[in-house]
Amino acid sequence: MRVLSFLIAYFFCSAAWADREKTHIVSAGDTIFTIAEQYYRDHQKWTVIYYGNQDKLGGALLQFPEGAEINIPYLPSDQAADATPLRQVDAEMKLLTGSNYAPFTDHNWSGDGMITEIVNAALENSPYPVPYEIRWDDDWSTHLFPQLDSKEFDMGFPWFRPNCEEDRLNQRCENFHFSEPLVELLILLFTRKDASFQFETDSDITGKRLCRPKGYFTYDLERKGRDWINQGIITLVQANSPDACFDLLMKGDIDAVAVNEFLGWTKVSSLGLKGVVEPLRRPLSIEGLHVVISKKHWRGTTHLYRFNSGLEELKKSKRYDDIVSRRLGLFWAQLE
Question: Which of 97, 111, 153, 167 is most buried by a 10 A CB count?
């Protein structure tokens, strides 16, 4: 009865949601930025359209083909989270995550954040779904080693996947399976609006000073065809915190802060830099967030298959787009 009630409630919620969505037929001269300005009155919300239409980009990074019919997500300022009938205390399957990582995993967000909701929904769509428990530990430094590596938990989320094809000896690559991406994040260059920094091609990065906080990944700067750090093409400054990076930007000691768009916009808002600092339009890279499972886990490949199957089914459905759009709407509403 509980599951039936959930399905009925979800059906009516999805129907009401669909009534508020719009579609747009791409015309000559349309860009993802002009479309965002048309529907949201803010060209900076172009990423909302990007996340809601990645399958329609036709291999291009930011340009839709003329004639394409794209979805314009509805952005509510608040929306209740989906029910989680399989999530139970002391269930045999145990997942590990942490809070203070908004909008992805955070107790202060409805549904405990966007990624938590996606994981919940993927598990419900997996073959022969089973009850599961989510444990929260805000000390992220202990998640991979020792907690997940020692199989204390069956899965952990969300984690970036290094470039394992080029760095097979990477500790994460050697020790963990990675699911298909839960969501793919845009890594952007946040610069001062009064700067002359342009980033149309990789050659524009030569001689620039980029800041990324200590402990954050750098493989997008070192991948094959770039190798910006080792060849001295850029100067990488690794400040103690995101706030410190933005402080260096305002002092003129660096040219850009290289972080994911959610972190960047959060800091721009909290530090009172709206209208002063904005991201460049061309992404530096696109990185996925994943579920990880220890390769030592005796059921690791089985868990990976089941989760990926559920995630694939979820992404085929409207529910995935609904979750992402709801959380993006809440994110932008909080910034405004």
Answer: 97
